[in-house]
Amino acid sequence: MSTITLLTRAGIHEVSIELNESIVALAKKNNVVWGHACQRGVCAQCRTYVLEGAEYLNEVTPEEKLRLRKAERTEGYRLGCQTKIVSAGTVKVAHRPY
């Protein structure tokens, strides 16, 4: 079974992956607090650092290109509301708001 590990200030949460679900949606479904407000890629409260499994995620979206600096994206930062799991594998992400 493929899992995603969500690292937050409140702890580490391991949940089952659901394909084509965003990080924010998976966190909400599993009662994990993952800060967010707009869910459209504007507020960046869901800023996420991908520690492992970037190859299982969708490509960077136009919203992420507008909101996150190129240097941030290069370092592995994404927006949790825009980042979706597109294939099975182990993914590990951390909530890293500004």
Biggest sheet architecture: 5 strands, mixed
Q: Could you tell me the radius of gyration in angstroms?
A: 12 Å
Task: Estimate the mean pLDDT confidence.
Answer: 95
- Alpha carbon gap, first and last residue: 32 Å
Helix count equals 3
Helix content: 10-25%
Percent of residues in beta strands: 25-35%
Category by helix and strand content: alpha+beta
Looking at the structure, what is the overall shape? Answer: globular
Low-confidence stretches: none
Order of helices and strands: EEHEHHEE
Per DSSP E runs of 2 or more residues, the count of β-strands stands at 5
Which sequence of strands runs across the widest sheet? Answer: 2-1-5-3-4
Protein name: Ferredoxin
Pfam families: Fer2 (PF00111)
Domain 2Fe-2S ferredoxin-type: 2-98
Description:
- By secondary structure, the chain is of the alpha+beta class.
- The chain contains three helices and five strands, in the order ββαβααββ.
- The protein has a five-stranded mixed beta sheet.
- The N and C termini lie far apart (32 Å).
- The mean pLDDT is 95.
